[in-house]
Amino acid sequence: xxxxxxxxxxxxxxxxxxxxxxxxxxxxxxxxxxxxxxxxxxxxxxxxxxxxxxxxxxxxxxxxxxxxxxxxxxxxxxxxxxxxxxxxxxxxxxxxxxxxxxxxxxxxxxxxxxxxxxxxxxxxxxxxxxxxxxxxxxxxxxxxxxxxxxxxxxxxxxxxxxxxxxxxxxxxxxxxxxxxxxxxxxxxxxxxxxxxxxxxxxxxxxxxxxxxxxxxxxxxxxxxxxxxxxxxxxxxxxxxxxxxxxxxxxxxxxxxxxxxxxxxxxxxxxxxxxxxxxxxxxxxxxxxxxxxxxxxxxxxxxxxxxxxxxxxxxxxxxxxxxxxxxxxxxxxxxxxxxxxxxxxxxxxxxxxxxxxxxxxxxxxxxxxxxxxxxxxxxxxxxxxxxxxxxxxxxxxxxxxxxxxxxxxxxxxxxxxxxxxxxxxxxxxxxxxxxxxxxxxxxxxxxxxxxxxxxxxxxxxxxxxxxxxxxxxxxxxxxxxxxxxxxxxxxxxxxxxxxxxxxxxxxxxxxxxxxxxxxxxxxxxxxxxxxxxxxxxxxxxxxxxxxxxxxxxxxxxxxxxxxxxxxxxxxxxxxxxxxxxxxxxxxxxxxxxxxxxxxxxxxxxxxxxxxxxxxxxxxxxxxxxxxxxxxxxxxxxxxxxxxxxxxxxxxxxxxxxxxxxxxxxxxxxxxxxxxxxxxxxxxxxxxxxxxxxxxxxxxxxxxxxxxxxxxxxxxxxxxxxxxxxxxxxxxxxxxxxxxxxxxxxxxxxxxxxxxxxxxxxxxxxxxxxxxxxxxxxxxxxxxxxxxxxxxxxxxxxxxxxxxxxxxxxxxxxxxxxxxxxxxxxxxxxxxxxxxxxxxxxxxxxxxxxxxxxxxxx
Length: 856
What we know:
Blueprint: H1 2-16, H2 20-34, H3 41-62, H4 65-79, H5 85-105, H6 109-128, H7 135-151, H8 155-172, H9 175-191, H10 195-212, H11 217-230, H12 234-251, H13 254-271, H14 274-291, H15 294-313, H16 320-335, H17 339-355, H18 359-367, H19 378-394, H20 398-417, H21 422-427, H22 433-445, H23 450-463, E1 470-472, H24 479-501, H25 506-523, E2 530-532, H26 538-545, E3 549-556, E4 559-566, E5 569-577, H27 578-595, H28 602-623, H29 628-631, E6 636-639, E7 660-662, H30 666-674, E8 681-687, H31 694-702, E9 708-711, H32 718-725, E10 728-734, E11 737-738, E12 748-751, E13 754-757, H33 758-761, E14 770-773, E15 782-784, E16 788-790, H34 792-799, E17 803-807, H35 813-828, H36 833-842, E18 850-854
Parallel strand pairs: 3-6, 6-7, 7-18, 8-9, 8-10, 10-14, 14-17
Antiparallel strand pairs: 1-2, 3-4, 4-5, 11-12, 12-13, 15-16, 17-18
Helix pairs in contact: 1-2, 1-3, 2-3, 3-4, 3-5, 4-5, 5-6, 5-7, 6-7, 7-8, 7-9, 8-9, 9-10, 10-11, 11-12, 11-13, 12-13, 13-14, 13-15, 14-15, 15-16, 15-17, 16-17, 17-18, 17-19, 18-19, 19-20, 20-22, 22-23, 24-25, 27-28, 31-35, 35-36
Pfam families: CHAT
Domain CHAT: 614-840
InterPro entries: CHAT_dom, TPR-like_helical_dom_sf
């Protein structure tokens, strides 16, 4: 009997750590030992019942629900003969709780709640009678019921149960169960639409799981990925799921594998990888059907339908079969009380009918869609708005179509205003992409009048670079996030040294990538990024230009358009192929990178330089010469789009010697020029390691400023530099830098004790008014949907810096030092940053690819 109990305990431990296959082996050994003759009947029945309860869970996880329920039926029948009334009540209560969990796992929520209520009532009676040993079981059942209430959109009831669990666990010392409840509370908040709150709860649970039970992290990652998909971070969600799926498959946790595949399909769909989305959705659906989870299987079928609908909407006339499938699935989902998903399937059917040329039927279908709930997912609301706009457009009502687009983007903005961390704020733009593209296309179809140009300007400002539309609130790094960033810094340093020594780097690279991902996930739970500013109007921008011109580029399909604001007028100019301009910008960027090395042989420099000049000339002909009559010799403010964010404007002939400022949006430029800031003063000059020309460069720059503070190589430590940046007027950092395309906020500057990351500089309490980054490529950004550029310089601008000078391509040490000396000489004579940089770059534009970002 003792050995049987030991095997059962081993099984419970394995099951709690999400290892049901291992648990099942222990349970079968326990059952075999209970068949030995001479065992006390009551004790045998008790242990056997407990073993069957655990076995039911494991079989349901690795097989089907029916496999698990059969074990419970056997146990319930056997317990009826147990003479010890008190023991019988305890075991029946445990049986009810187990049956509830099995039902919850496959979506039969209300049925499961009826069982868990019985379990909770039993434990509440024990606790009321002073039996403290009831707490562990009570917390488990309360957490299960709280999670179930969250599944059926009763967040208040869910939170009540889960908060009580957290309090009981804190009071009685049950940290893992408390962390499980915190995880469950995160799920409730996610379903209620509070994504930042959910991510904070996940981060809290993550800390405990990592320390005490890492096996529980797999399920946590699945739920984190669902939250990320809901705010548009499909690429991050995909990476998260790709990490955990191999472990889940090895452990054969059927439901979790299926759900992970389902969300991987959803992430791939958002990311535009339709093939992967279809494969993952099909695999998830097959697993869920085998498990006896028809509700979840229908959700997987909906993702597969969305893939087919996406393809059909791109065709000339979608097949009626796709519409019929959508309506059939909508009926199945509604019958299973999955109303949000049913409504989404019906909206898809309506969109397909519009595409098929039957807006009347589409309108009838849409009228029968239930009214949206307050907590309906944002992507559902965006697609509903899009469908209404498409119906209005099919009926010739452009005004209503644009009104739907405006309302949808306003709803998306309300979600974004609640988000913390630049990744979440920028990622949310993904959900409004189609609405924005529709609106821009409609305005372009109106013609090229001044009125149309003004309307287009307003729509572009509503849809692009929204993360720069905030006045950031004062924020500091969470202590755990700070520790993780320190670890990333240490690993980055170790990797750099290993590469210099020619040592193997694969293991270090893997550890660094994992540490970066961990730090980034902690950053997702930050408090809201800032206070939103209103979108700039053409009149406000023109009033602020003060003799300058602003050119805002945009693309619709393959058409590239420029809006020029100058001399009190707004003009629209159609420039030609966006794809050609993109390719030309990329070739120019590649040439400038090749031209950067200091010791490049002169013949090779001449060949590459000639190629760069040709590409610059082509790009100039495409982008700026058609605007020559409008721009005249005015200073420029440029709002790029897509690949144009990499262009160092000073290399284009039209911009030779002309002050040019690049801004993520007109709204961000206007905000930077108007921003009321605390007084800042002084000049900070920082010299990083490994730059041959930096010693003389920094000493030379100090001669231009009477109030300069120098941090030499040995003093330029990360903590010292961050402290010195706070409240300074001008900060110049001469250090090697690198743009990190996959994790833009880990773009970095190399200091003596390791990397200084964009993550950190973006949260300096009082950002410098002007920052000069005399390093390679730190003007580069990862451009997300919605023209959301994110990188080192972008983090500074989003964090409150007014102007950033940085290179958009690689730059040699010597030309960088010379350009910076000329730039600071200009500043010392009272020139603005934009004017000083234009003069400095003009001396050797192809070797000095610096740009002025922000206000200028």
